[in-house]
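Input record, target 12 of the design panel.
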C-alpha cells in the first residue's frame, strides 16, 4: 500500500505545489466520474472501445488522479469520462492538460483519434478549444499502456485557458537552476554492470580485468548494480534479487571480498574513470539485521506486521522514513562507502519512493566527505534534481525512440517529448539516455534489425544527455539477463563490429560535443520518419524508414561516420534504417 499511497501523494504534490501556478480559478478539473477497463487481450482497438456509441456500462468506476487498483497488472487499460467546456474566456486558447500518465497514452475525443503521448511523468497537453462546443458534453477516451509498476493517470487532468505555451507547461522545478554537478560527470558516458552476469566466475576481479575494454569503448563512469549479500528469507528463485539487500556493510562473497572490490575501484580510478554503487534504500531483505535490531524502522500494517512495499516485491520489507534514526543510519552507511572504498557516488533504486527531504540531507552529508559525490536517481520526477540528485532517467526518450523504430511513432513525437523536458526540468538538469537497461528488454529484442538498432542507439548517444550502455548491449546481446537467476553474458558470441561502431560514436561525442553545446532537433520528413539534429558542430541524420532518403546537403564539410554517397546533382543519399554524422 505504501507504493500506491506515495504515488498518489506525489501526484497531488505535482498538482498543488509544483504546478500551483497552473491551476487557476478558470481551470476546470476533470475529476467527474471516470470509468476503467483492463485490456489484457488487446482487443480494445479492434472492438472500438474508443467509439462514442460503445457501451461502457460494465466498465468499473475509478478515480483520477490515481493508479489502477491491480498493482500486478502491466499492459493496456482504457479510461473514459465526459468533459464539458464552460465559460471559455475570449481571446484564450484552451488546453486539455495531463500532469502525468503512466506510461504511454493514446487519446480519442468523440470517437476520433486526437493525439498520443509517450513517457512517464511528463506533463503534456493538446490544444482542444476548436474541438469543444461551449456547454456541450463530449466523450474523452484514453488507452494507457503501462510498462511496469502501477499504471494509470497519477496526475490531474484539466481544461486550462492559456495564451502562452510556456506559462501553460512550465513546472515550478523548471524555474530553478539545477545544482551544479561535478565536472567529471557533465559529459560522461555510462556503463552498467551486473557483476553476477558479467563473467564466468562472476567476480570483482573479472570486472577489473575487463576495464581496459570498457574504457576503450569510450566509457567514463561505471555503474555497478548492487554488490551486497542477497537475502535468503523469502527470496525470489534460487539466487534471489540483488535488490533484496541482506547487509549494507558487506559485499556478496560470491563476488569476492571487500579488498577485491577496493582493487576494482582503484583500478577504475587509475584509468581516469569513475565508479558508482547501486544503493537500495527504500526496502531491505527480510533477514537484514535491521529487522531484528530496529523493527520500528519498518512500515507496518494495522495488525502491526512489517509489510513489503507492494505485492510484487514480496521478497523485501518496506522502510519507514518517518523515523529520524533510520535516516541518520542510512546517511552514515553511505558515508562509510565513500570513505572506506573511495566510490564516487551512488545510483539510488526507486528514488521516487524515498522522501525528497531525505535526499537533500543525504547529499549534504555525503558532500562533506566528497564534495564531488554524484547521485543518480532511478526516477524521472523533475523535483529530484532540486533535492540532491544530479541525474534522472529519460524514460520518455527510451519509449519514444523504441516506438519510432518499431513503426509506432513518428519523429514529431520524439521532438515534442524532448521539448516538453525543457518546460519540466530544472535548467542544467542531467538526463540519462538509453535504449536498454536491466529493468527492460534488451534493445535487440525490441528492435531486432541490426541497422535500425544501431541507428536508435546513435540517436540517444549523440543527443543532449548522458548515454548508457548496459553490459552486453555493445555486442548485440538479445537475451535478457534475469537478475533473479544465474544468467550470464556470452561474450564469445558477440558482434564485435557493433562494439566498434558504438565506440566510434562515443568517441565522436567526446571529440565534438561539450556539455554546453547547443542542441536542436530537426524534422526532415515526418511521414517518412526522417529526422536530424544539430549538436554543437555536428549534424546527424537519421532514417527510420524502409526506403532511402535523398537530400541537398549544402554546407556539409565532412562525413565523420556513415555512408552518404553524393550524386552529380549534389544530392546525398541516406540508406534505409541508417544514420550519418557530418560537420
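The sequence produced for target 12 reads:
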Amino acid at each position: 500500500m505504501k507504493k500506491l499511497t506515495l504515488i498518489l501523494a506525489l501526484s497531488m504534490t505535482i498538482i498543488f505545489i509544483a504546478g500551483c501556478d497552473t491551476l487557476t480559478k478558470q481551470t476546470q478539473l476533470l475529476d467527474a466520474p471516470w470509468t476503467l477497463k483492463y485490456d489484457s487481450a488487446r482487443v480494445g482497438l479492434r472492438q472500438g472501445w474508443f467509439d462514442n456509441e460503445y457501451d461502457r456500462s460494465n466498465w468499473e468506476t475509478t478515480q483520477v488522479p490515481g493508479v489502477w487498483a491491480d498493482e500486478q497488472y502491466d499492459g493496456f487499460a482504457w479510461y473514459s469520462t465526459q468533459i464539458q467546456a464552460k465559460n471559455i474566456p475570449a481571446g484564450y486558447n484552451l488546453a486539455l492538460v495531463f500532469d502525468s500518465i503512466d506510461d504511454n497514452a493514446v487519446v480519442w475525443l468523440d470517437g476520433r483519434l486526437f493525439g498520443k503521448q509517450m513517457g512517464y511523468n511528463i506533463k503534456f497537453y493538446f490544444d482542444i478549444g476548436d474541438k469543444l462546443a461551449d456547454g456541450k458534453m463530449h466523450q474523452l477516451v484514453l488507452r494507457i499502456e503501462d510498462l511496469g509498476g502501477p499504471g494509470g493517470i497519477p496526475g490531474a487532468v484539466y481544461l486550462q485557458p492559456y495564451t502562452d505555451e510556456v506559462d501553460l507547461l512550465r513546472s515550478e522545478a523548471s524555474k530553478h537552476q539545477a545544482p551544479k554537478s561535478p565536472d567529471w560527470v557533465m559529459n560522461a558516458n555510462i556503463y552498467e554492470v551486473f557483476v553476477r552476469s558479467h563473467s564466468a566466475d562472476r567476480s570483482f576481479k573479472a570486472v577489473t580485468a575487463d576495464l581496459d575494454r570498457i574504457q576503450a569503448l569510450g566509457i567514463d563512469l561505471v555503474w555497478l548494480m548492487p554488490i551486497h549479500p542477497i537475502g535468503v528469507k523469502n527470496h525470489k528463485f534460487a539466487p534471489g534479487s540483488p535488490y533484496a539487500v541482506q547487509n549494507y556493510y558487506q559485499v556478496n562473497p560470491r563476488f569476492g571480498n571487500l579488498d577485491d572490490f577496493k582493487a576494482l575501484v582503484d583500478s577504475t580510478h587509475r584509468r581516469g574513470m569513475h565508479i558508482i554503487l547501486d544503493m537500495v534504500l527504500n526496502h531491505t531483505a527480510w533477514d537484514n539485521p535491521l529487522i531484528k535490531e530496529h523493527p520500528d524502522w519498518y512500515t507496518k500494517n494495522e495488525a502491526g506486521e512489517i509489510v513489503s512495499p507492494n505485492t510484487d516485491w514480496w521478497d523485501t520489507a518496506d522502510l519507514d522514513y518517518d523515523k529520524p534514526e533510520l535516516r541518520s543510519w542510512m546517511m552514515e552507511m553511505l558515508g562509510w562507502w565513500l570513505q572506506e572504498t573511495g566510490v564516487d557516488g551512488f545510483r539510488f533504486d526507486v528514488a521516487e519512493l524515498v522522501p525528497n527531504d531525505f535526499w537533500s540531507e543525504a547529499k549534504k552529508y555525503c558532500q562533506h566527505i566528497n564534495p564531488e559525490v554524484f547521485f543518480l536517481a532511478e526516477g524521472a520526477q523533475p523535483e529530484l534534481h532540486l533535492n540532491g540528485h544530479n541525474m534522472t532517467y529519460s524514460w520518455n526518450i527510451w519509449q519514444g525512440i523504441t516506438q519510432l523504430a518499431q513503426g509506432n511513432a513518428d519523429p514529431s513525437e520524439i521532438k515534442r517529448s524532448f521539448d516538453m523536458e525543457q518546460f519540466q526540468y530544472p535548467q542544467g538538469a542531467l538526463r540519462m539516455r538509453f535504449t536498454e537497461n536491466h529493468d527492460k528488454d534488451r534493445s535487440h529484442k525490441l528492435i531486432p534489425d541490426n541497422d535500425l538498432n544501431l541507428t536508435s542507439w546513435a540517436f540517444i548517444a549523440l543527443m543532449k544527455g548522458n548515454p548508457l550502455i548496459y553490459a552486453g548491449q555493445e555486442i548485440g546481446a538479445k537475451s535478457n539477463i534475469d537478475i533473479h537467476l544465474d544468467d550470464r553474458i556470452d561474450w564469445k558470441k558477440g558482434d564485435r563490429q557493433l562494439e566498434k561502431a558504438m565506440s566510434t560514436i562515443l568517441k565522436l561525442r567526446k571529440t565534438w560535443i561539450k556539455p554546453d553545446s547547443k542542441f536542436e532537433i530537426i524534422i526532415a520528413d515526418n511521414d517518412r520518419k526522417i529526422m536530424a539534429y544539430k549538436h554543437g558542430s555536428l549534424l546527424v541524420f537519421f532514417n527510420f524508414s524502409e526506403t532511402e532518403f535523398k537530400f541537398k546537403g549544402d554546407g556539409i564539410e565532412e562525413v565523420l561516420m556513415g555512408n552518404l554517397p553524393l550524386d552529380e546533382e549534389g544530392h546525398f543519399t541516406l540508406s534505409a534504417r541508417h544514420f550519418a554524422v557530418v560537420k
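The longest strand covers residues 75-84.
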